[in-house]
């Protein structure tokens, strides 16, 4: 297990850089992933995606399929990729503190 240190916090991550424990998610983690993903500034649209992913995960224990993410947020898949260049599975789920998705997110 690897660790990441950022702004005085230490995070346990898996081999792909996803948080090991959802409970460790915090704003410092968001800032770390934002920087590593090359996102200059978080918009309310970024926050909407992150909040939906977290709520869905808390209720279902998994990340939602991309169709559900798109339908609930109202964002087309293309726009989600504009917000999170590495995609909904890698960038958005990682930033939201979810484990690495196993299926088609």
Question: How would you explain this protein's 3D organization?
Answer:
- It is found in: Cytoplasm.
- Belongs to the DsrC/TusE family.
- One of its GO terms (molecular function) is sulfur carrier activity.
- Keywords: Cytoplasm, Oxidoreductase.
- Its EC number is 1.8.99.3.
- The chain is mainly α and 105 residues long.
- The protein has a single domain, classed as Arc Repressor Mutant, subunit A, CATH 1.10.10.
- It has helices at 27-37, 44-60, 66-73, 77-83, 87-96, and strands at residues 2-6, 9-13.
- A two-stranded antiparallel sheet has the order 1-2.
- The model has no long low-confidence stretch (mean pLDDT 93).
List the helices and strands and how they pair.
Elements: E1 2-6, E2 9-13, H1 27-37, H2 44-60, H3 66-73, H4 77-83, H5 87-96
Antiparallel strand pairs: 1-2
Summarize the structure.
The chain is mainly α and 105 residues long.
């Amino acid at each position: 297990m690897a660790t990441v240190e950022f702004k005085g916090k230490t995070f346990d991550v898996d081999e792909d850089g996803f948080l090991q424990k959802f409970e460790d998610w915090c704003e410092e983690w968001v800032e770390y992933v934002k920087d590593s993903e090359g996102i200059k500034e978080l918009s309310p649209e970024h926050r909407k995606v992150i909040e939906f992913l977290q709520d869905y995960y808390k209720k279902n224990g998994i990340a939602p399929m991309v169709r559900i993410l798109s339908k609930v947020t109202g964002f087309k898949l293309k726009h989600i990729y504009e917000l999170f260049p590495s995609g909904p599975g890698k960038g958005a789920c990682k930033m939201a503190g979810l484990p690495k998705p196993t299926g088609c997110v």
